[in-house]
Amino acid sequence: MSGVWVFKNGVIRLVENPNQSAGDTHSRRKVMVYLPTGEVISSYSTLEQILRSLGWERYFGGGDTDLLQFHKRSSIDLISLPKDFTKFSSVYMYDIVVKNPNYFHVRDSN
Question: pTM value?
């Protein structure tokens, strides 16, 4: 995971490959793979189905309508994702990987 951490308006976020040319951005896009089946996660409906099978439940208590959130009753972990799947970046992918070891992997799309 490469990039620069930017702090703006009280929010810190990772800007991936800030010096990369616009034409080269797509080739470096990351995808998340569900390891048991080798399936590339291409939608939130697919991801939600897999997370549910791993014991995650939708969490509606956060109050932020711009986020999809999942929690596990057996842990204090919370997964927060942007509702718009086009904003599902490697930062969110790695969060899922860390909280679900041996089930997901992030790799370059090419």
Answer: 0.71
